[in-house]
Design goal:
164 residues, mainly alpha, Arp2/3 complex 21 kDa subunit ARPC3, globular, Rod shape-determining protein MreD
């Protein structure tokens, strides 16, 4: 329950950021919920991250888009990919920051690709590559660094004490 509350607070902070700073395509998207889901997938149980990815992806689809299923798919897949990669290359501060930032890039490109295939975006490739992605990557890399210590302590599963 405490992980759900933390992810919901990240969702609210992200929505507040988006409503305050969404004035142009060059506005970087702060993806705190996705970052939180990646931490849950890495330091918690992947089943929990998959369930929360479905819930928050559906919430994203209902609140922010007219189409159901885009964020449900990506919010479930990206955290699992990040934890899979980090299980093989090792987990430390730098590998987590670099992998999560790369997954933010994969997420941004996949969302744009899906929206372009459906015909629901007006953003050009040039706008995406020059204005949108660099700012989004920079802002999210800072968010990953800031959230690293609290999320690793908050999400880490603790061993169950044996009774008897």
């Amino acid at each position: 329950m405490k992980v759900f509350i933390a992810l919901f607070l990240l969702f609210l902070i992200e929505g507040t950021w988006a409503s305050i700073f969404s004035w142009h395509y060059a506005t970087p998207f702060l993806l705190l919920t996705l970052i939180g889901l990646m931490f849950v997938s890495l330091y918690g149980r992947w089943e929990t991250a998959l369930g929360f990815g479905l819930v928050f992806g559906l919430l994203y689809d209902i609140v922010y888009t007219d189409l159901l299923g885009i964020y449900v798919f990506t919010f479930s897949l990206i955290p699992l990919l990040a934890s899979f990669v980090l299980k093989y290359i090792g987990e430390n501060f730098f590998s987590v920051t670099i992998t999560f930032t790369f997954m933010i890039l994969v997420f941004t490109v996949s969302i744009y690709g899906i929206m372009a295939a459906i015909g629901g975006t007006l953003m050009t490739i040039q706008t995406l590559l020059v204005e949108q992605i660099p700012g989004t990557m920079f802002v999210n890399a800072i968010a990953i660094v800031i959230l690293y210590y609290p999320m690793t302590r908050y999400v880490t599963t603790r061993p169950v004490v044996k009774r008897g």
